[in-house]
Amino acid sequence: MPRPRFNRILLKLSGEALMGEGSFGIDPDATSRLAQEIADAREGHELCLVVGGGNIFRGLAAAAKGFDRTTADYMGMLATVMNALALQNALEKIGVDTRVLSAIPMDTVSEPYIRRRAIRHMEKGRIVIFAAGTGNPYFTTDTAAALRAAEMSCDALFKGTSVDGIYDADPKKKSDAKRYDGLSFQQVLSDDLKVMDASAVALCRDNNIPIVVFNVREQGNLARVLSGEGIATIVQNEE
Hints:
- β1 (8-13), α1 (28-41) and β2 form a beta-alpha-beta unit.
- The protein has eight helices and eleven strands.
- The longest helix is centred in the middle third of the chain and has 25 residues, at 69-93.
- It has helices at 28-41, 59-64, 69-93, 115-123, 141-151, 185-190, 198-206, 221-226; strands at 8-13, 46-51, 98-102, 111-112, 127-131, 156-161, 166-167, 179-180, 182-184, 211-215, 232-236.
- It is globular.
- It has one domain (8-236): Acetylglutamate kinase-like (Carbamate kinase).
- Helix content is 36%, strand content 20%.
C-alpha cells in the first residue's frame, strides 16, 4: 500500500551524507549529488532541511574525550553551519533558491532563525536550511529537526540514512535483521530502536508528525519516497 503523500516536509540529513567516501569533512562531489537529489525531488513540496555536523565535529564524542560538554556542543553547532553553507552553495549552483537560517546569530553568513520568516521563505518556494541546531547545548540535531518540523507545521519529518528503513538490529552487522514497514512511536521508544534520540521521537509523537526513514544515498530514492513510493519505514501514532 502506498504511503500518504506529504506537502510540507522537513528533511533531516546527517553530516556524513556530505562526506562521500572519505572519513572526514565535506566532499564537493557528494554534496553536489545530494543537492541534485533534493532539486529533483522538491517539485510540489515545501521543503526545509536540518543537516548534522558529525562529518566535522561531534560534541558528544568530544565531551567523552575531555572537552567541556557545553563548549563541545557549541563547536558541533558551528559544524552544522559549515555544512548548511556547503549545501546552500551546491543547491544555488543548480538554480535552487535557498536560505540558511541559524539558531546562533551569524549575520555575515546567514539569516537569524525567525519562525515567520522561515515560513514565508518556504511559501515562496525557497528551500530553507536550518543551522546551529536549537542554539542550545545538550540537544542533538535530531531534536532540532523535530522542533523545527513542529514549528514549521510540517506534515512529516523525513530522515535520510544509509539503510532503507528501520531494523530491529544493525543490518550492516547482522544479516538476519528484520526490517519494519511501519511502527508506532510507542514501539520505537519501548524497544529503543535508535531511529532518533528519544526526545526527538517524543516531540514528533506529541505533535503527530510522522517520521519517514529511508536510504538517501540510493539515487532517485528521495523523489520516490516523497511521492509516497520507494522503500522506507514510517513511524506514526496508532489510530
